[in-house]
Design a protein that fits this description.
Layout: E1 2-4, H1 8-19, E2 20-23, E3 35-36, E4 57-64, E5 73-81, E6 87-97, E7 103-114, E8 119-126, E9 134-144, E10 154-161, E11 165-172, E12 180-188, E13 194-202, E14 211-217, E15 226-234
Parallel strand pairs: 1-14
Antiparallel strand pairs: 2-7, 3-4, 4-5, 5-8, 6-7, 6-9, 10-11, 11-14, 12-13, 12-15
């Protein structure tokens, strides 16, 4: 088994390309969280030619200044496909506002290969922006297609947790080699509010049937009581 460390410099470059981008116009402290769970008004719903609309997806938004990069504000979307269609690509346009409703950033979140009933994550980073009060989103692209389920073919288990790392084993049960995988671990307080997140990743090719170990750094994370992991995998 190999051991892959969470290298945030490498991840920030790779994840920006794969998950989304933006343009901007337990040694854990119990400091006040710089996180807002948004409750923006529902956007105008558009129906695509394939019959799908945002009503076919369950979406939860978060805004967070992560401890691993406190110069940026990240928008996180957790999305579940409630339709019976396999969505090959889905894209959201995101606009960020300050408390006075001034636009302080725009970005795009792209998610690939979302099977019926599956839940996954997408992110968008607003570089150098720390005054985001709320966001709006618009579903700008939604395409269906045929593909082998992604996350169902990966066996991911939490094997160890200490004050520094969350350690996961990742086994590739797909028929293809795994090119890369990013484990996003959302960290919540006792009331279920997101306070931080961390990332671990498989950066080397993982042949079918092989297992590797992935660690996600939590040594500098804000204090949390529970966590949930989402995987973005690429074959």
């Amino acid at each position: 088994m190999k051991k892959t460390l969470a290298l945030f410099v490498v991840f920030s470059l790779c994840v920006t390309m794969l998950s989304g981008c933006s343009t901007a116009t337990n040694n854990r402290s119990s400091e006040t969280s710089e996180v807002t769970e948004t409750t923006a008004e529902a956007p105008t719903v558009s129906t695509f030619k394939n019959g799908l609309s945002e009503n076919d997806f369950e979406v939860q938004e978060y805004i967070v200044i992560p401890s691993h990069n406190e110069e940026n504000t990240d928008c996180i979307i957790v999305i579940k496909n409630n339709s019976s269609d396999s969505v090959s690509s889905i894209e959201f346009e995101v606009t960020a506002y300050d408390a006075k409703d001034n636009v302080v950033g725009t970005g795009t979140i792209t998610i690939l290969k979302l099977s019926p009933g599956d839940e996954t994550i997408g992110t968008c980073s607003f570089e150098g922006v720390k005054n985001i009060d709320h966001i709006t989103r618009k579903l700008s692209k939604c395409e269906v297609g045929t593909f082998e389920p992604v996350n169902e073919t990966l066996d991911i288990k939490l094997v160890e947790m200490d004050n520094m790392y969350l350690t996961y084993s990742v086994t590739n049960n797909n028929t293809k080699a795994l090119t890369a995988a990013f484990l996003y671990v959302l960290l919540f307080d006792k009331d279920g509010n997101l306070v931080d997140y961390t990332i671990g990743g498989v950066m080397d090719r993982l042949p079918k049937g092989d297992t590797t170990v992935v660690t996600a750094w939590i040594g500098s994370a804000k204090e949390f009581d529970s966590h949930k992991m989402y995987c973005l995998a690429y074959f």
